[in-house]
């Protein structure tokens, strides 16, 4: 069972996201530059690779929808800024899709290490497909890790943003497969008194611990 | 530097910020609106513009230095 490969720790949900200052295709950026905005920090294995190219096109396509929700995008891979620039220019030349968001050139792996983006079992030289959703206060609110072989689902990322923002706004939770417009879940009561209050509130009740309402 | 080119010329985003500051002190939120740039870009650019001596931070927001005022481009037309 011994293994000499060091595995980086992962950041933790609902704690401050690890701070960084990084060289990007839009200049030197700090995490704190995003204060007041939601941020999706995502990694890809490498520039000029097929799955990553489809993902970047897909991220660019949802960027206007993200902006409507006050969300910025920030990509990352262990490549140079020159490689990033050449790749995004190539993507635009070949597909007509402009990549409007910055990409971190994490050659020293500082950001990748802080966020646990390198999974040695998958690749010791590339980041896996991570998504970190960071709220306007700099708190890490959600993480997704996808393997090298599987491109991410942009609709799920949008849905996750909608769910987090709805939870924050209305102090509710969201059920499986929730999408905007669906009923949300009222937090489960923790006292007998709260049970009685929920029973009188007119919620759609499955039972005392599962109540739904529209927002 | 991203907003100041190696030859010392200003990138369009930096020029927009300096022009926006020519009407008086401003905070990053106002500058983002006036320059049509995302907030993170303005915050990042302000660090470079301060470092280059074109802008300084004051209690009422960012203000142009003498060097910065000299780099404001006149309105077109």
Task: Explain what the structure shows.
The complex is a heterodimer of chains A (215) and B (77). By secondary structure, chain A is an alpha+beta fold. Chain A has helices at 50-68, 81-95, 110-114, 154-170, 192-200, and strands spanning 21-24, 27-30, 38-43, 71-77, 103-105, 129-134, 140-146, 184-186, 204-207, 210-213. In chain A, the strands form 3 sheets. A 5-stranded mixed β-sheet of chain A has the order 5-4-3-6-7, covered by helices on one side. A 3-stranded antiparallel β-sheet of chain A has the order 8-10-9, with no helix packed on it. A two-stranded antiparallel sheet of chain A has the order 1-2. Chain A is elongated and about 60 Å long. Chain A has 2 domains: 21-152, Glutaredoxin, CATH 3.40.30.10; 171-213, Antioxidant, Horf6, Chain A, domain 2, CATH 3.30.1020.10. Chain B is mainly alpha-helical. Chain B has one domain (12-70): Arc Repressor Mutant, subunit A (Orthogonal Bundle), CATH 1.10.10.10. In chain B, 47% of the residues lie in helices and 10% in strands. Chain B contains 4 helices and 2 strands. Chain B has helices spanning 12-21, 28-35, 39-51, 66-70; strands spanning 55-58, 61-64. Chain B has a two-stranded antiparallel sheet with strand order 1-2. In chain B, strand 1 and strand 2 (61-64) form a beta hairpin. In chain B, helix 1 (12-21) crosses helix 2 and helix 2 packs across helix 3. Chain B starts with 11 loop residues before the first helix and ends in a 7-residue tail after the last helix. Chain A binds chain B through residues 26-30, 32-34, 36-37, 72, and chain B through 1-3, 38-41, 43-45, 47-48.
């Amino acid at each position: 069972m011994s293994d000499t490969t060091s595995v980086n720790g992962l950041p933790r949900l609902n704690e401050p996201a690890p701070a960084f200052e990084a060289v990007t295709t839009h200049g030197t950026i700090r995490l704190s530059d995003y204060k007041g905005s939601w941020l999706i920090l995502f990694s890809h294995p490498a520039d000029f690779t097929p799955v990553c190219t489809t993902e970047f096109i897909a991220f660019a396509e949802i960027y206007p929808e993200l902006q409507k929700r006050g969300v910025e995008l920030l990509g990352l891979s262990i490549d140079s800024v020159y490689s990033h620039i050449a790749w995004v220019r190539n993507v635009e030349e070949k597909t007509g899709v402009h990549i409007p968001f910055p990409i971190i050139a994490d050659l020293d792996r500082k950001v990748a290490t802080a966020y646990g983006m390198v999974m040695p079992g998958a690749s010791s030289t590339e980041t896996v497909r991570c998504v970190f959703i960071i709220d306007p206060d700099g708190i890490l609110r959600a993480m997704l890790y996808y393997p090298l072989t599987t491109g991410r689902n942009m609709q799920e990322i949008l849905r996750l943003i909608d769910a987090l923002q709805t939870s924050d706004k209305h102090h509710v939770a969201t059920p499986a497969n929730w999408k905007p417009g669906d009923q949300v879940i009222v937090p489960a009561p923790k006292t007998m008194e709260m049970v009685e209050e929920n029973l009188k509130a007119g919620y759609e009740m499955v039972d005392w611990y599962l109540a739904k309402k529209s927002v | 530097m991203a907003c100041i080119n190696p030859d010392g010329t200003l990138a369009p985003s930096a020029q927009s910020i300096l022009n926006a500051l020519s009407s008086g002190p401003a905070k990053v939120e106002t500058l983002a609106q006036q320059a049509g740039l995302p907030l993170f870009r303005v915050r990042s650019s302000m660090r470079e513009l301060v470092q280059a001596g074109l802008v300084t931070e004051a209690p009422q927001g960012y203000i142009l230095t003498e060097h910065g005022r000299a780099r404001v481009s006149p309105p077109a037309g």
